């Protein structure tokens, strides 16, 4: 029986697959309040010609529009791929309480070098603000993104 994290990550995987089918990077995110999905997002960088339209920022924008506020305290963001520094900053600014990730960047191949979400959280003294859960459907998330797992 799948865990709640797995069930929610599968919804994010649907967004990732749709983004990839549209010619964007295959990354998907959802924002959950309790057990309800309040917003979805997928990478739209190429189709929108917007370098900030990563799955996480799209989900945050959609949540703001749906909820008519920008304080997402107590909510969880699921994402199929490790958020970049820009997205991690937006997640922290929004008050998201938990980040659940699938696949991670391969430090050997990434343009971000040794960056991890955890390193940014530590550097900004925000460890008490955001709980990070990793390893949820890692293989499936890596496969949809077509990257090597680390």
TrEMBL record:
Gene3D superfamilies (UniProt xref): Cytidine Deaminase, domain 2
Sequence ranges assigned to domain CMP/dCMP-type deaminase in this UniProt record: 3-123
Q: Which PROSITE patterns match?
A: CYT_DCMP_DEAMINASES_2 (PS51747)
Could you tell me which SUPFAM superfamilies the record lists for this protein? Cytidine deaminase-like
What Pfam families does this protein's entry cite?
A: dCMP_cyt_deam_1
One Gene Ontology term of the molecular function aspect: catalytic activity
Name of the protein this chain belongs to: CMP/dCMP-type deaminase domain-containing protein
Organism of derivation: Entotheonella factor
């Amino acid at each position: 029986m799948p865990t709640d994290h797995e069930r929610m990550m599968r919804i994010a995987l649907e967004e990732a697959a749709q983004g990839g089918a549209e010619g964007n990077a295959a990354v998907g995110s959802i924002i959950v309040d309790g057990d309800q999905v309040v917003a979805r997002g997928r990478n739209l960088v190429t189709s929108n010609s917007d370098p900030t339209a990563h799955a996480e920022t799209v989900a945050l924008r959609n949540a703001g529009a749906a909820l008519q506020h920008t304080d997402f305290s107590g909510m969880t963001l699921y994402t199929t791929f490790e958020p970049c520094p820009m997205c991690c900053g937006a997640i922290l600014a929004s008050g998201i309480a938990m980040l659940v990730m699938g696949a991670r960047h391969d430090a050997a191949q990434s343009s971000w070098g040794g960056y991890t979400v955890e390193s940014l959280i530590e550097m900004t003294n925000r460890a008490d603000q955001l709980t990070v859960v990793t390893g949820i459907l890692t293989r499936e998330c890596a496969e949809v993104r077509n990257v090597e797992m680390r």
